[in-house]
Design goal:
The complex is a heterodimer of chains A (509) and B (298). Chain A has 509 residues and is an alpha+beta fold. Chain A contains 19 helices and 17 strands. Chain B has one domain: MetI-like fold. In chain B, α13 packs antiparallel against α14. Chain B starts with a helix and ends in a 7-residue tail after the last helix. Classes of the chains: A alpha+beta (509), B mainly alpha (298).
Chain lengths: 509, 298
């Protein structure tokens, strides 16, 4: 199925590039145009109802209409890459540093907006302080209109506190207490203690490193990473020395920790083939823990309060005990214009409206007023009478309005809302206290000289590295195999290139 | 005469168009294996980088493994599946009642319509360590559970088993057709001469299905470098501890594309696969022609 899609894509790619003859005439400014936008994740049932209302506003304001497509979460990065590299005429696309922003900006599939934005989205453009724009820079160009919002940060563990208490553990806040909980659950309950699979494969390895005793204790900057986690980083207080994940003490601890998890049957033996992630299993009562970011943790907390009020939940955000931590990037979400767009001017005009007009913000974020949301007399957002939010046709904030979120309009601020889960709120307050300004934000590792080696490294990461990190291999043997595979893949060449670029960058700053 | 060839050409047209659009035009894409693909520059405009993309195949250290696995599995699949299919066809053809014949055929044919995606989920539920049907059964009999997804060697049996389950019914129908085509007089003559069942099978049926067998073998060789992507991907997926015994060229190409999204590298790997496959077909065809000229394809 996937392969079929890839083949079809190749065919389309070839045909379009053979027969296409350059960019068509640009639509003049007064002509009506239809903009096409791609967003990540899943849509909501009433999205078209909202879009009809939005299109009425848009026709009046900027003489355009909008067509929106969603990638769904299945293979969303691959789908975005296909859309962007096939040259499909898309005008707006959601981009994020946690997605494929820097990669696509380097690949040349996104438009540098420095020339157009000041003319067509002046208010928003001028609202960014130079620091934010600097964070969006890739090789000197700006390829994204970031949102204006500070996001909650971190990846934490949500666990069943009721079970922990049952077995004499007050709180999970260390590898020891976590292990104790999981072992007790294994011995006494009919569930796989950490029933990991699918989604966990991309977050847990990094997470497991961050709960070990020898993990970095203060802010650090990631220089190179891939889907399986961090590869190279530097500590803020010692930027000259590049550190590598696989050589670090905490990775060795992680391997031992995960090997124990595996041997004690605290994770599914066949975790790499499990197509159900721990989040689903946790909701179904088939796992004693899962890993979630603060927003998702709060979301699931609200759900569980309704579905299983007898469960008590705990949230452990391991980063809160660090001495300091990088603040969330100011550009964590944003919208980009693909180079294939024929209407970049109009796309920017739409972004200006989305950022500066509360009506646009409200529609795309909460749906149609009166149908999907209401305002209380003191201006708080609330569900209309008799509407259950969890199966309403437009779940607030769900259909990816994140790319143009504005703090000044946003009605669901996690730290402000009274209904938010206390544990999440507390952890975020700590994160805020230990947060330090991000450094060296405009450094991006230019991989073009070592792309072959990087590709080979990625193959090792999905191979031995993931098996070893999930405890499926004997630690010593497996680690030796990992080192050998890394060497064959050319890790020394990559290190050399990274060190050269990094020291040149430091010298120039 | 002219009219007749026109009609025939017209009938061939959809097939020709299909090959043109999906097989010949995309071949232009092969140039990408020597280029660093840049979306903004397009296929023809991207810069040439020589053989650099092929370096990845060597660096990844998987070339030997995936080539051997692909060929090995194709041989295993052909031998198990087609030999079994021939015997099944003989059995079914020999059944007296037509209704029973039809019944067995349908039952065996049914799995062919199931998608491998379904099969993958099916397999996980059968074989996973904690809740799998097989392991639950073993444990209730007081035996140790088997960690299927972490035992490399077992997959030389598991994969062919699923392959047979899915395809044997389909293949047996092809051989049935060959058996039905044998003239009844030959069987009558054998009976009159007092031949046993086994002698009839050995001297009449098997020689009659050999040409079919060889043609299918040649088709199979043409695809020998194509592992059955669906089967391998859905049953094994990202389970890297099994790669030693289950990684085939197709899953390797797929991962190269999805993990790195380097189109040049994926194309280079696919190109290697095609060239190797071409030489295999030519080689085996030459071999068949040397043994029996009639049976070769060209």
């Amino acid at each position: 199925m996937k392969r079929g899609a890839a083949l079809l894509f190749m065919a389309v790619l070839v045909i379009t590039s053979v027969f296409a003859n350059g960019r068509a005439e640009e639509a003049s400014e007064n002509e009506f145009v239809e903009l096409k936008m791609y967003l990540v994740g899943d849509t909501v049932p009433d999205y078209d109802m909202m879009l009809d209302e939005l299109n009425v506003l848009m026709e009046e304001d900027i003489n355009a209409s909008l067509d929106v497509n969603f990638t769904t979460w299945v293979d969303w990065q691959t789908k975005l890459r296909l859309i962007l590299s096939s040259g499909e005429k898309v005008d707006l696309v959601h981009m994020a540093p946690w997605g494929i922003y820097s990669e696509q900006a380097q690949a040349g599939s996104l438009m540098d907006i420095r020339n157009l934005a000041p003319t067509y989205a002046p208010e928003t453009w001028n609202s960014y302080n130079p620091d934010i724009l600097k964070q969006t820079e890739i090789n000197g160009g700006v390829y994204m209109m970031p949102f204006r919002y500070t996001e909650p940060i971190g990846q934490g563990i949500v666990y069943r506190k009721d079970l922990a208490k049952k077995y004499g553990i007050n709180e999970v806040n260390s590898t020891e207490s976590l292990m104790a909980l999981l072992k007790a659950v294994h011995d006494n309950e009919a569930m796989v203690p950490f029933n990991a699979g699918e989604f966990d494969l991309t977050v847990w390895i990094g997470m497991a490193g961050m709960i070990q005793n020898s993990r970095p204790q203060s802010a650090f900057k990631v220089l190179l990473e891939n889907t399986e986690g961090v590869i190279a980083y530097v500590n803020y207080d010692q930027p000259e020395t590049i550190l590598y994940d696989y050589e670090s003490a905490y990775y060795k601890e992680t391997m031992d920790f995960m090997r124990t998890m595996y041997n004690e049957e605290l994770i599914p033996r066949n975790v790499l083939s499990n197509t159900i992630g721990s989040r689903e299993a946790f909701l179904a009562g088939k796992s004693a823990m899962t890993t979630l970011n603060p927003l998702n943790a709060n979301e699931e907390f609200q759900k569980i309060q309704n579905s299983n009020p007898e469960w008590e939940l705990g949230y452990w955000l391991p980063m809160t005990t660090m001495a300091s931590h990088e603040k969330a990037p100011a550009i964590n979400n944003g919208m980009s214009i693909p180079t294939a767009s024929e209407n970049p001017e109009r796309a920017l005009m739409l972004l200006e409206k989305l950022h500066q007009d509360q009506r646009y913000h409200d529609l795309t974020t909460y749906g149609v007023q009166g149908v999907h949301w209401e305002l209380t007399s003191d201006g708080e957002i609330t569900a209309p009478q008799g509407l259950d939010l969890s199966d309403s046709g437009f779940q607030w904030d769900r259909p990816c309005p994140w790319g143009w979120r504005e703090e000044k309009f946003y009605r669901l601020n996690v730290l402000k809302s009274p209904s938010v889960w206390g544990e999440v709120k507390a952890s975020q307050e700590t994160m805020y206290d230990i947060g330090v300004e991000r450094k060296w934000t405009d450094f991006t590792f230019d991989k073009s000289n070592v792309s072959t080696e990087i590709s080979a490294l990625n193959t090792v990461r999905t191979g031995v590295f993931s098996a070893l990190s999930w405890g499926l291999m004997d630690v010593e043997e497996g680690y030796q195999e990992l080192i050998d595979d890394y060497d064959n893949a050319g890790i020394e060449t990559v290190k050399q290139e990274l060190e050269d670029q990094w020291s040149a960058y430091l010298a120039g700053n | 005469m002219k009219n007749k060839s026109q009609t025939l050409l017209l009938m061939a047209l959809p097939g020709i168009l299909y090959f043109l659009i999906f097989h010949y035009i995309p071949m232009i894409g092969i140039v990408l294996s020597f280029k660093k693909f840049h979306p903004a520059l397009g296929i023809l405009g991207s810069p040439w980088i020589g053989m650099k993309n092929f370096e990845f195949i060597l660096r990844s250290g998987a070339l030997g493994r995936v080539t051997i696995n692909t060929i090995l599995y194709n041989i295993i699949f052909f031998l198990t599946n087609d030999v079994l299919a021939v015997f099944l066809a003989i059995f079914i053809a020999d059944m007296a009642k037509r209704s029973i014949q039809k019944f067995y055929q349908s039952i065996l044919f049914l799995p062919y319509f199931l998608s491998f995606v379904v099969l993958g989920v099916f397999a996980y539920n059968l074989m996973n360590y904690e809740y799998g049907v097989i392991n639950t059964l073993l444990q209730s009999l007081g035996m140790h559970p088997v960690d299927f997804y972490n035992t490399k060697g077992l997959w030389y049996f598991i994969l062919p088993l699923f392959n047979i389950w899915k395809y044997v019914g389909y293949s047996s129908i092809i051989y049935m057709a060959a058996i039905v085509g044998i003239e009844q007089e030959q069987f009558e003559a054998a009976r009159i001469d007092g031949a046993t069942k086994w002698q009839t099978v050995k001297s009449i049926v098997i020689p009659a299905v050999i040409p079919t067998f060889v043609v299918l073998l040649l088709f199979r060789v043409g695809q020998m470098m194509r592992g059955q992507f669906d089967l391998f991907y859905n049953l094994v997926g990202n389970n890297s501890p099994l790669y030693d015994t289950t990684d085939v060229v197709d899953t390797f190409v797929f991962r190269a594309l999805v993990n790195n999204f380097d189109i040049g590298i994926a194309t280079a790997t696919g190109f290697y696969q095609s060239v190797f496959g071409l030489f295999l077909v030519l080689g085996v065809n030459a071999l068949v022609r040397a043994i029996n000229k009639e049976n070769s394809l060209f």
